[in-house]
# Entry
Amino acid sequence: MAKENDRFALLNELFKENNTSDYSTALKYADEFYNLAMAKGDSVRIVQGGRMRAFTLMDLGKNEEVVSELNYILGITKRNQNKYPELKTQIKFILNNAGIANMYLGNYDKALDLHYQSLLIREEEGDKKSMRTAINNIGLVFYNLKDYERAIQNYLRAVTISKEINDLNGLERIYINLGLCYNQLNKFDEAIKFFNEGFKICNQNCDENIVKEGLEGLGFAYQANHQLFLAKENFIKSLEISKKQNDNRYASENLLALSKIEIELKNEDQAKKYLDEAEVLAVKSHLAELKLAIYKELADYYGRKNNYKSSLFYQNKYAQFKDSIFNDKLIKNLTKVQSNYDQRENLKTIAEKDRFVALQKEIITKTQRQYIFIIAITCLIASLTAVLFYFTRRQQKINQELSRAKNKIEEQNDRLESYNKELEVRVEERTNDLNLSNKALRQVNDELDNFIYKTSHDIRGPLATLKGMSNVALMDVKDELAISYLKKLDVTADRMNTILTRLMIVNQINSSVLMPSKIDFKEILDEIFAFERKKGLPSRFQINCDIAQDCSIVSDASLVRIILENLIDNAIKFHNTSDRLDPFAKIHVFRDQTGVKVTVEDNGIGMGSKEGKDVFKMFMRASERSEIGGIGLYLAKLATEKIGGEVKLVYSDSKGSMFELTFPSDLNDVIKNRTMSEQKLAELRQNQISPNPTSRSTVI
# Structure
């Protein structure tokens, strides 16, 4: 079973590696994953493998196969969702992918219905991020139906949700979609603005699909503004990416656009070549909208050439194909789908209004009761006034009435004292509950640290066995494919071993007892440099160190070494590989009024502002070079805080990065201050637990 799980995991990783560049190879691994799941009768993995195949088939333009595959696994998912709850969460994704494939095939009513089904599931779950995806895809269907105003409404709604949840991931795609809509509405300046906003969000790390779509959109905008050569340049760049990805849809769109530009530039022969190539791709991938546009252009081309027979042939194909797509049945189905969703929204609004009316009635009832109470109090006050006036006229009864009033006041004081005691008991109970919760939390944290340590330690044995078996197999196996798999397993085992070591260091830092001693920065840095050179430095990499005088401090030597080692290792790992630069790391140790500072500067690849904000978080990966999960900088941060210091990222961009460390001069002072703070906190908790003496007021 473990062997089978490893094979599934390996095939999944190989699929992911090839799915953005080599679709044919990705499909091969998806097929192997799917067939293995079918052989084992594993419903969960059959669905996973089916989705993998559908992703790649869609990228290859085989949308009819995509629809068939997704309909099959959707049936499996619905039949087994109660038995395997993890399948239930897959339904909305399968509906979404099926909607996209049907849209490419021109089945717009079916596509819209599937996307609305997916949206309703996401709304029930309350996951706004997931809702944003469905709303964006609904906008895409309306875009293909040429209902650009409604498409824009959905896109803007998706933008609003992104800002509400403060999640900008994927926002660049929505901006690109908005730009495409404004292109169709002939608002080309608005379109260019949204395209540039989209590229600005992802900057140099844009996904190839985003670049491909944005360049095509810019091409249309520039073409409409009669900037033909600038438009042609963008279309050609988009076409290159499309062909590289085997994306027939975008390749056809770019070829069609280039043909129109060549016609405008009077290059009829080149235009015809573009149209012929576009027609082959559109027919091959069953791209309904593109076939319509290409047939129309070919009819016009042959008309200009006075080849009326060919022109009539393409005019007939255009008319017949258009009638097969935009027929009365389609319009009725679209109206029905939209009406069903709107009706659900209206019913939801009516229910909310009913609840609001009921709440208003409840408020009115409470207000009426308050008025009655106020009137009763007013009547009571008036009665008391009359009684007091009566008592002033009857002096002989004053003492008796005063005594009666005094008795009432004493009774009220007794009640107040009882209330105070009850309140103190409740405060004591809440305080005890809070102390128990804090104790339980500390116990859970201790158990978590212990779990991480034991788990890391226990996994090392199987990892060593796995690595040993891989090495033995590498010596015996001759098949090249098996050797490549075994090498990848060996590399993966090394990476996992490194991650486990780092996790054990996290536990070591959390549970370590601080041992103050005099720190010699030169000695520690020399040991780190020797260790890095032993591991092997990149070509031409230089390490420079500048230690000012009077930089001695008292701190924990092991933690100081962990901090400096991880920062220097980070500078080496993310060095600049350009042949035009000599990579380096500069370490500067100096003293200022706050203590001793250390800066670690490099000219590496840097990171964006978005990654820089979370760079010290565990498992934060700012680059694909981070092969061990982004733990190094987290260790540096954790160890620095343990000894009372501070570490921060001064800057990081394409020219390099700089980290700054501040060490306190004496760790003994830090330990002393922490001890005093803990004692004060303990005293405060003790005071909160001790009951306060009750006060009794007396009115005479």
About this structure: The first strand starts at residue 516 and ends at 519. The radius of gyration is 36 Å.
